[in-house]
Predict the 3D structure of the following.
Amino acid sequence: MSREIIIAGWGAVSPAGWTAGEMVDAILEKRALPISEESRGSDAPVRRFRSVPNALAQPPWARHTRLRRASPATRFAVSAALEALGSSEIEKETLGVIFVTMNGSVTFSRRFFAEVCENPALASPILFPETVFNAPASHLSSVLASPAVNYTLLGDSAHFLRGLDLAVQWLHEERVPHCLVVAAEELDWLSTEALMLFPGGRIAAEGSAAAYLKLGAADAGVRLEQITEAHLMSSQVSRARAAKKMHAELLAQPDSLICDSRCGSAVWDAPESTAWPDAHAHSSAQWLGDGFGVSAGWQSVLACEMLHRGLGRSAAISAIGCSQQAIGAVVSR
Amino acid sequence: MSYRRDQQLSGPHRVVVTGVGIVTAMGHGWSANADGFRVGRTALRPITVFDTTRQRVHTGGEVIMDVPLPSTKLTPRQVSRLDRATTLMLNAAAEAMAQAAWSDTMGESIPISLGTSAGAMSLGESYYQSKSLHPSHKRRLATLVTGYLPHTQAQLLAEAVGISGPITIITNACASGANAIGHAFHLIRHGRARRAFCGGYDAIAEMVFAGFDSLQALSTTTPRPFDATRDGLALGEGAAMLTLERLDDALARGATILGEVTGYGASTDLHHLTQPHPAGDAAVRSMSIACAEAGVGPGEIGYLNSHGTGTLLNDSAEGAAIQEWAGDAVSRLKVSSTKGAIGHLLGGAGAVEAVICLMALRGGWVPPNVPVAQLDPICTFDLVREPRDSALDHALTNSFGFGGANATLVLRRWSS
């Protein structure tokens, strides 16, 4: 059996819309997506964020019983996952699911804890299960009807690539013949105001990204060439140093497309601004915003879609997370 | 852990446990816990970490924090900022690392695999309360936000014990700890790492406690897994950490081997977000996958540490699954739940219960279930209700969580 890993499909929900195509168009056109501004009151800071536009029509999957009360992050995840799977005939009962997030279903969590603070005896038993980190992943497996292994991974904005690495592990160990990696985040004042506590003026964003992986030949999709070590940041290892170690390991070709994690803030962008000239890089966060746990997923989808459109033969993904790790990947056509 | 298209991995390798740390309501460390579980001591007590006067339930498996954090590589400032969950985890980690005597970790990428359900939830609660009461305040909030993120807790662990490697935090609700050990086991078994540090942890937190109470899943009397009149679970807290390494490496360095991890299975129950399928079909699947990898059948499992929460639905579904999976061997299968003694440790449960299995394998005993007044008819297996000595070769532990996350580990007694 081939041990080559193919990304056979991908999908995304972003402030640009409900498909990967809309997201990539917005990035390639360097389109200025609208930024909303809101405040909880005169004493609260003004939040700046990019939210996902309302869908033009309710998709059929939205009527699934498990999605009636599900969080926005769950809906984003399901949409991107189904886009990644496309219309291909697959054995869904053997589909592994890896869900990546940083904030989880923060809207439900904030609402439930507000009820607890008010009066725990009246806190809603309907809300609580949806606050659990793996609720979106559970709903996703249920919608897909897959009883196979399902993990929810927590990590920073680079962690989607660790999800891809885990998928590779599962495929090589033959635990599953195919695997879906999905990241999703939803906006809430709790997480948006948290982002504002850190320097750089980043714009919070929401959405999802998905990649469908399997063993095989790259005739339909793109080939996964490399995932680097996840270089850990710590009190002893700065973000810049972790990034430098990762870049030294990344097998980017001179003509590779670069999908990096720059967001337009000099504070955060320095490691990548010094690593390669601007002209060669495509920076999804600059146009979409900070997608928390989705960020590297958007970078990955951008890389796959650009190769699919024939814009290059290989693409390097440089994901320098907010506080955990620097990790990269290379995909080719 | 990195991947390249031309990558060639070795394996499969045998994987052994060379260090264990454990903190539960039963006590700090291997000895205190082994002594308590062996005789069937119960360690539930009034909750003091937050005010429970407005809850239905006021007791749980709260850890008595009377043991100072062992010396680590963290700075005093880092230590001063630790939350309860991370403190529990670091206590367990220090014990495991001391036992493993890994002296040459610098420069080697050693994966960390952690399971947690709530992480440093108390810091998240503090952040919310501060933001709600004083929307414009910023002081110390960045520290709370950073500390709340579970990967920060893993980074603190790495710094504390002096290792560096990729971090995997699996949050599959109450199966997380077992998933984390299973993940680390597979990394080594299939040649992606030579050793790994893994485990699970969770602390009692108000939001989670209130959540289980809102579902009326908490016992208002005492938790009695597999009792026909059971009325729910008790929440607990704690951590267990394990050092895993290749058998040949452990032998070469003369390490004390505490047991072997031989099988791991995971599956997803699609029935409902919080309720298992009544027949426990996903549990059958996870047990079958784990035993197939371990190369053992139900008749060879000497002890099964059940998920056994004490809720009506969980115990009946797990009982049905054990019947289906064990078949003719069911009546000879020794089963107990240890959650009646220390409560349900959520993301820490799977790791703690794996360590209890290691204790049982090494000591040759089975930890008893809490007393059962009226046995549930689903128990066609041998529910161990009194302290019992028994030579064991293989033990199996089940962990099932919200979202249908099911995980099973199989462990083997080490015999040179």
In short: Chain A has two domains: 5-215, 223-332. The first helix of chain A runs from residue 20 to 28. Chain A has a mean pLDDT of 95. The longest strand of chain A covers residues 5-13.
